[in-house]
Design brief:
Layout: H1 5-8, H2 18-22, H3 25-31, H4 37-43, H5 51-92, H6 102-147
Helix pairs in contact: 3-6, 5-6
């Protein structure tokens, strides 16, 4: 997984999270099956200054990577399936789909939209995790300097 760190690291335009908020990821998060559920239970037992919060955040960061990969694979595979259905219908004749090519095209569009919002959601959450960890590290350095 270390070889893909360059991909998973939040890019300069993702760090603030505004681009994802602009496209509606927070709205989508409310209706997403994994939105906030996996973190709610862990957050309740860790205070913002406890060392266990680092472990929780690092674990959740790795979960966001896994979920992002799953949704990338789903988007590609299901889109390929849709295109294969279209191509197969063209090979055997248009009557295979009943002259209704819009069914697989609609299927592909909803698949891409649904999976890309899930990918964006994971990237948005990962950027938030990185910001929290960076702030926490900054606070540790500031406290060390003040205690000298």
């Amino acid at each position: 997984m270390a070889s893909f760190d360059f991909y998973f690291q939040p890019k300069f335009f993702e760090k603030s999270g505004r681009i994802y908020e602009w496209i509606g990821v927070q709205f989508f998060q409310k209706y997403s099956p994994t939105g906030r559920m996996s973190l709610d239970y862990s957050w309740s037992s860790a205070s913002p200054y406890s060392p266990s919060l680092d472990g929780v955040l690092q674990k959740y960061e790795s979960v966001t990577r896994l979920l992002e990969l799953v949704h990338i694979e789903l988007a590609v595979l299901v889109s390929l399936l849709g295109f294969l259905i279209i191509y197969g219908a063209r090979l055997v004749g248009d009557e295979a789909l009943g002259n209704n090519i819009y069914i697989p095209i609609t299927f592909i569009i909803f698949n891409v939209i649904g999976n890309f919002y899930q990918i964006f959601l994971q990237r948005y959450n990962r950027a938030r995790i990185y910001r929290i960890l960076e702030r926490k590290e900054f606070l540790k350095k500031t406290i060390r300097r003040q205690s000298r």
